[in-house]
Amino acid sequence: MNLPVAAEAAPPDPDRLPQQVALVWLVTSLLVGLVVRTVLALTDDGLYWPDEIHQSLEPAHRLVFGYGLVTWEFERGARNWVFPGILAGLLKFLDAVGVADPAIYVRVLKVLMAWLGSATALGVYAVARTHGATRISASAAAGLWSLLAPAIYFAPRMLGENASLLPLLLGWALLGRGTRHNGVWGAALLVVAVVLRPHNVVFCVVWLLVLAARRQGPLLARTVGVFVLGALALGLLDRLTWGSWFQSVVEYLRANVTQDVAAQWGSRDAFHYVRVLGRCMVLPLAVLLWTVPAAFATRARGLLLATLAFLVVHAWVPHKELRFILPALPLLCALCAVGLERWDGVVPGVRNTVAGMLVVVALASVAGHKRLTKHDLGLEDHVVDTTSAYDLGGPINRLLMKAWREPDLCGVMVTKIFLVGTGAYSHLHRNVWLHEARPETFEAAQFSHIIVEEENLGTERVDVRARDGRWLLARVLDRPCTPKSP
Known about the structure:
Number of domains: 2
Strand content: 5-15%
Order of helices and strands: HHHHHHHHHHHHHHHHHHHEHEEEE
Distance between the termini: 101 Å
Number of helices: 20
């Protein structure tokens, strides 16, 4: 009689538990990053830089409702209408469903931007995986981006850099797969990233050079074709919106290359970004500097060269803002995962150890994200300004949104700040006079309400309608104001 022989138990997979832990960490970090970004979008009404309103939401508001401030870029046609147009479509939809309160629609748009920032962490994971990283390394890198302090800070802000992150990462994720079909779609997503933030063209140029160096003629030809079609689409858009082919590109280059308009906002030396990153993310920067170079010996070499070229170009440009290099940061996180795999081949077992370090570093970064100052983010580089980087000008913007409810509103005077440093008409949402306080025009200005610090209220007879910290929204009594013509 033959008795059944018990099947021999399969040997345990030594990577199974770490991979399960990696999945838990990926989901947890994404959820925490999503919650933190959403809270920030709902509570921070300040500005990092005027562009987050006046190159996006303000022109979108003017497009939908017919009034708003116009900056020089939109006077000369130095910006394309893609990103403001997307925001205008969202504004139009919100208006159609009855959302008229600026305190609501502004925050809805900021929440959507914050969620887009959280989704970028999945893009980091996808780029890392398609370039050879394991689930453990890719999850650690995605979690780092999800909880990185500067990534959280910028996420809700309506900047072209933010809008371009997800298509940029998804494009590189497809390019990393190396097939003809994915290469075409990856190139198309790079085009989208360039349209949203023209500086991303550096990635396209380097990718073409990489394909040429690899002698991948057919893929190079198809990629050139996609880029040409994308350029023609942008040129046609400029022709339809500005009246001239490629006007946004020509005018932007004329202003910033031949006329050096950006110089009025200040210049920094080549090591500015290194100093700023060392202040706002010192531990993550240390890990990136150790792991990222190892990616050069992997199939992520093209991505590494493109990212380095992007950083070098921005280090060379005199005017510097941290947001300019934002597209490079999630790619560096993905390259960190790829480099970590290379290190694991040299020192077996180092991957899990460093992945654990990345978890600790990410948790430390999110725990301290509210401590970021203006100096940390490079807003004040020559002096140590410890003012919080959060809610800069937030009280003024909240009072503008409250002024929307004033039944007798004829005009608003905002003191001690330029209007481009406020949310302007996109936050006021009333077609009334809007002024910044200038001594030479104060008496002649048309306004019924004033936004002012309490200690600077002066001798005017006023009726205080709202307060936010030391700032007041007040109705100025006995002051004539002629309503603005529609």
